[in-house]
Amino acid sequence: MMTFAKALIENQPTLQWFAGELSGAPVHKSVTNTGQLAGFFQDKVSLAGIDPATVVYRVEWWEPVSPTVEGGLFWGSTIIEPGRVGNEYFMTRGHFHTIRNRAEYYCTVQGNGMLLLMDELRNIKVEIMSPGSLHYIPGGFAHRAVNTGDTALCFWACWPSDAGHDYETVASKGFSARVLSKNGKPVLVPEEAVTEA
Ligand code: PAN
Ligand code: ZN
Prior knowledge:
By secondary structure, the chain is mainly beta. 8% of the residues lie in helices and 43% in strands.
């Protein structure tokens, strides 16, 4: 009979749920600053006035299997700092999954924001992110999280190991709407109306 000690899997990761941190397993980390998001924010003049090393968001994620494996799952956190470039709130780049039918879950633990979901025809939907909100991102939808609050927005995500990230489509065509601050409130503004906003 196998003993419990022999059956026990080591290196089981631990979450600091509210801080968005992972430990106890090899974790990937990335930091994205304003300098790396030059093509993403609409107000280039305001962007030029911000130190390009200003952190916009950090991601930590665990890949228990290789990204080439079909059927696995990845798990990670994103923390978006509060801030704006001009009147546009700090946000993630946003992406489609390379394999378009791959879905994803986001769940918010801290802060307030909006999740933009855009299909390939550029139809856009928005979900409000607040502590406890759970978001199902269907396959075929580009997704971008926006921090509309005064504190960090922290959420966890779970996505298929083979999903892949297509950043090119969003980098070249953008989303069809932006979340801008108007009279201190977040408003979804269609891309074609942004210059008048
Ligand atoms: C998330 C995102 C994370 C950062 O883990 O990768 O929030 O956003 P960008 O990847 O758009 O920079 C996810 O959606 N994974 O699939
Ligand atoms: Zn994703």
